[in-house]
Amino acid sequence: MQAPTTTMTDGRDLPLIGLGTYPMDDAEAAEAVRCALDIGYRLVDTAASYGNEAGVGQGIAMSDVPRDEVVVTTKLRGEHQGYEATLRAFGESRQRLGVEYVDLYLIHWPLPRLDLYVDSWKAMIKLRDDGLVNSLGVSNFMPEQITRLVDETGVGPVVNQIELHPHFVQEDMRAFDAEHGIVTEGWQPLARKTDLLSQPEITEIAERHSVTPGQVVLRWHVQSGVVPIPKSGNPQRQRENLDVFGFVLSEAEMARVADRAQVRGGGEPDTHEEF
Ligand SMILES: NC(=O)c1ccc[n+]([C@@H]2O[C@H](COP(=O)([O-])OP(=O)(O)OC[C@H]3O[C@@H](n4cnc5c(N)ncnc54)[C@H](OP(=O)(O)O)[C@@H]3O)[C@@H](O)[C@H]2O)c1
């Protein structure tokens, strides 16, 4: 079982579902990643700030899946923004992961107060030009910040990973990303801090399709053109979360899934201080 892929503007393929790994520790991440890859996942999401890059790397090494079939994503943490600091931090991430190259490297948060994300981006372009990173992306970026990256470097991100779930559908940001050929990845896709999965609208649709509430929500992401990265350390739920390509939600069901109060659950991109 594998997710289909989409082709990013840099010509690389990205699976339509990935595995999140926050807040796993190294041991949990190693086992979860090994298991997920053997089930069929080919996209894995970690970050320097999760403290589990070594575990993620061990999981990749332990699985039977060849390294070049896995899209390994990691992220630059706030305290390492800036040109030289980004180069150093990337080297440390690469070492912890135990990989020759990283497939997708993201700036974790823009931290506009520091005003270093353009310098960080320039370092990331060098890493790509040096063959150490395949694809460059951002996370939690707003339109004006992406526009600035393009204006000042001529290079735009191929991915923007943002908070996205039926309680926070981010229509404007998704439209901006789509207009600029940027793939939107959705973090916290199952809205883990809410009771979304037990809401009657979701459970009714799940019963109708003989699937689980989690599958309904992940199918909603895929049909919305979003790449979700659900976290699970449980093999059964990992399998379930990848198995959403055998049914289709009607237009009315799509609308019903997202017909709820819109509330951001995590940090505000313009002010969130992630170090
Ligand atoms: N870029 C950013 O700023 C940012 C911020 C937050 C997160 N992320 C990334 O996004 C990933 C996903 O977000 P998240 O982990 O916060 O939330 P999430 O994926 O929405 O939810 C994960 C939670 O749901 C449970 N779960 C998983 N599949 C399920 C299913 N089918 N049915 C019921 N429960 C299920 C998991 O428990 P079990 O493990 O027990 O299955 C876990 O407690 C993170 O792991 C991380 O990689 C990025």
Automatic annotation (TrEMBL):
The active site is at 50 (proton donor). Residues 17-258 form the NADP-dependent oxidoreductase domain. InterPro entries: AKR, Aldo/ket_reductase_CS, NAD(P)_OxRdtase_dom_sf, NADP_OxRdtase_dom. Keywords: NADP, Oxidoreductase. This is Aldo/keto reductase. The record marks 75 as: Lowers pKa of active site Tyr. The keyword Oxidoreductase applies.
